[in-house]
Design brief:
Chain lengths: ~450, ~450
């Protein structure tokens, strides 16, 4: 629990609130500076904007940089917008190049350019800014350590001593030849336990896993996850080392991807924090509901076609939620398992038919079970054996189709190079709604003479 | 892309298939041993059980241990069941203590005891076995390095040289006092760049983040994620160091938790691989469908109550999927955002009313928009302005309730100490189904004279 931390933090928060209400900005600042950087950012982002603006100039640039690195993009943008360029230059100078590039990529181009012209590591940051956001290049940080294969362990350690104490790039050392091509990797651990006179070439792994600068960030996170890597070297087309993706970036990508899948499966096509502005929430969610409305017209049409049957046997309507709804849930189950299986690589694309066969069989077994229960309910409730039979048979048929839809829709999405998670329940439940009404009312119409 | 890796692996796979069909087990074994451990495990787990059984005894224990560490629990159990104890002892001896404990915890107690009596690190493994699976103690590994605060950097490095080259426990060194209490942490990086004569106490961080051995593994992963930790020390009630949770375990926990949320939101209460046995899949999914069936009876009852209205104005039925379905999707959206917000800590428990207010407002705005579109569709399609009004008004009302249900159900779940993700769409869509029919048919019944 790190109980001590949490208790400390609560106390500090209480104190900060007291000092804030008294307007003691300096006291607030020094209290903030006693916190860890993630906690600093959290406390800071909970403050109202006007207080943030009072406090930030009072903190030293290192702490300000820490806070800005931890905040959400939107918050940073807002703060940077209100800040003078001089101050921003001081802060950006304290950031890791990848974080600096992220920040400058988010603020207006003019302000970014003004900052870029005056920071120390402007070349590194500029080259990072060239890569699209969701690629390996977009999440990597530049290398500030260059190890050659013919250096000794001792020379390497001397070299490391010269680096900034905050350097991220040090648990794995990527080894280059004189032209800058990636030729190996040596872990800091191997370095520590080796004799000082050992040549790096003799302790390095000469077949390191790497990624191309233009590859998708998801590909990078999958490699790092698969091989438990703390850092992944990024190379250009000539296998020259251009940067590295570190562990903390991997964690962020993994969480982003999981959230994206959860959101898309829930019919929210674009990830956003729970407290996003109302207008953004509407822009994301309303179009999806309208799409749902359009697809719902399909089942509405089926119901409209069978209007006469419903008018004659209105008791049929009572079982709509069962015939359509339960199958819709079964389809969502199949969809969930398929989408997650595809995302985790448990289902290979060529195993589609195996998965389909499984879900069809499952739909059949579950369909027979649910079909029998539903038939019994209909019989006992309404006292008509034939109605029970119709309800049960339609449910069974629809459950099998639910398995089919739950597998085929996401697989098709992937085949067409869309994210399978976009095949949200909205699409598969429309299928089960439509088919459910079709089977149910179709059967009822055929047997209408005996049902009236 | 690590293109080279992937191409190599495809070639190796092809060769392995060739050698397998020729029955050249030794060739298969040496080919497998050229692969990285994650790849070895993947190729191995794709082989049929009889081939696995031929190959495993031919591989050396280190490689066998690597493969078993990477396989799924169920696969390991199957293999261990068929293996002789002698062989199992050899393999377990090559495993990290945490992996060994995981394996022994999964096999029959009798076989586990037989192995425990003969392995080298039996004390460490035994004490790890005592902790429940989902606690910090259950995922931690034991410490095989003990650093005291008054050692010098040079002494520490000498000490590290004596460790097994595979030791996981080395990127952070946790520092103890003579009685074994956790007093600090020093990173390997700080160690490398420090002068050899420096005392550890002078370079260590004396306020390390730690976790109690009985805390939930999710709590541990949240701390590591929040503070970007590569390792988290685990302490007992007296703050004595008992183990550590490493980076690779964190990744596994994070992925497990994301998958669990996705499954639960999709109405699959228990996570299982996409290719789980049919009987397990039925056992997990059928009860949930039956629960759904029971809740669907609620909306069935509403429909049944309004049977007369439906018989008189059968055209009403055409709009069921719209009034109920679109609101169901809106409820799922609200649910998804709330559940993920709670999981990521974006929504604090006390911010419930703020979230509720937001979603109600969103429901109102989306409800007015969708309500107007739906009213227009009903009017144009069926030519009855009053029908359009009834459909539109019911949709609007139901959309607001959807926002309410999507927030209140998961919040209530959390209040009652259930996982909010268990508030799957099944529960909230039942609410929107029932209320949708109630509003819609209730309004229609009030206005029946003008609708017929």
């Amino acid at each position: 629990m790190a109980l001590k931390e949490i208790i400390n933090m609560d106390e500090v928060l209480e104190q900060i609130r007291l000092e804030l209400s008294a307007g003691n900005w300096d006291a607030v600042t020094s209290l903030l500076e006693t916190l860890r950087r993630s906690d600093q950012a959290e406390v800071f982002s909970d403050l109202p904007p006007e207080q943030q603006q009072e406090i930030l100039p009072l903190m030293d640039p290192v702490n300000s940089a820490d806070i800005l690195e931890e905040l959400e993009d939107e918050e940073v943008l807002e703060i940077a917008n209100r800040m003078e360029t001089d101050r921003l230059v001081e802060i950006v100078d304290e950031m890791e190049p990848d974080e600096a590039a992220d920040l400058l990529g988010d603020i207006p181009a003019e302000q970014a350019e003004a900052v870029l012209q005056r920071i120390d590591e402007s070349d590194e940051v500029r080259s990072l800014l060239e890569h699209p956001d969701e690629t390996a290049g977009g999440v990597m940080t530049s290398m500030d350590v260059h190890i050659l294969a013919d250096m000794t362990v001792d020379e390497t350690i001397q070299h490391l001593r010269g680096l900034s104490p905050d350097s991220e790039t040090i648990y794995y050392l990527f080894v280059e030849d004189k032209a800058g091509h990636l030729v190996g990797v040596v872990s800091l651990r191997d370095l520590v336990v080796a004799k000082p006179s050992t040549i790096i070439r003799d302790i390095m792994d000469d077949d390191p896993i790497y990624i191309q600068v233009g590859a998708d960030q998801e590909e990078a996170s999958r490699l790092m996850f698969r091989y438990d890597l703390l850092a992944l070297p990024v190379v250009d087309a000539n296998r020259k080392l251009v940067g590295m993706i570190t562990y903390d970036d991997l964690l962020d990508v993994l969480e982003e991807e999981a959230t994206e899948d959860i959101y898309r499966l829930g019919g929210v096509p674009k990830e956003q924090p729970a407290d996003v502005a109302l207008s953004s929430a509407i822009k994301t969610r309303l179009p999806w509901l309208i799409l749902n409305l359009v697809t719902a017209l399909l089942s509405a049409t089926v119901l409209s076609v069978f209007e006469d049957t419903i008018a004659q046997v209105a008791v049929l309507a009572a079982f709509f939620p069962i015939v359509a709804g339960v199958s819709g849930s079964a389809a969502t189950q199949a969809l969930t398992v398929t989408v997650r299986g595809l995302a985790l690589g448990d289902i290979a694309p060529k195993e589609g038919f195996k998965t389909l066969g499984r879900e069809l069989l499952l739909g059949l077994v579950n369909g027979v079970s649910i079909g029998i229960i539903v038939a019994l309910i209909a019989f006992v409730w309404k006292g008509t054996p034939l109605l029970g039979l119709v309800v049960g048979a339609a449910t069974l048929l629809n459950m099998v189709c639910a398995g089919l839809a739950g597998v085929v829709v996401p697989m098709l999405m992937q085949k067409l190079n869309f994210d399978p998670a976009l095949a949200s329940p909205i699409l598969v439940t429309t299928t089960t709604d439509t088919l459910g009404y079709l089977f149910y009312l179709g059967l009822a119409t055929l047997l209408i003479a005996s049902l009236v």
